[in-house]
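Exercise: predict the fold of this chain.
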Amino acid sequence: MNLLIEGWRPAEVARRLGVSDVSVLRWKRALASKGAEAWRRGRLGKPPKLKERHLLVLRNLLETSCTQHGYSDDRWTYRRLATVLRDLTGLSVHPDHLSRVIRGLNRGGWHPRVTIHGAGQVAMEAPAT
C-alpha cells in the first residue's frame, strides 16, 4: 500500500481507508516480508477441493460406460458421477458443483463425448461410425 510506503502510521491508514487497524498491520507485515509483490492479487476464495488427480478420474469416468460402475443403464447423472468419484477417490463433491467443473473442463479445451441434459443428466453420445 502506497500510504505505508510513504511512511504513514498504520492507524492513520486505517482511518483514511475505513478499515481495521488489524488489516493495516497485516498489510504492513506482508509488505515487510514480500515487498511490492505482497500486493499482487492471488487466487481468491478457498483452494479448490478437486485436484488434478480428481479431474483425471472425472475425465476417465466420462469416457467410460456407466454400466462399468454397476448402473443398469448407460446414462451418467451428476449424482452418479459424484457417487463414483467419492467411491474411487474418497472426495465428496456436490452434484451441482460437478456440472460447473465439467463446463470448466470444456472451456479448457477438453471435450468429452457427452451431452449435458436438463434435470442434471449427462448422456453418453454414440461413437461416430
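Check your answer against the key: The longest helix spans residues 21-34.
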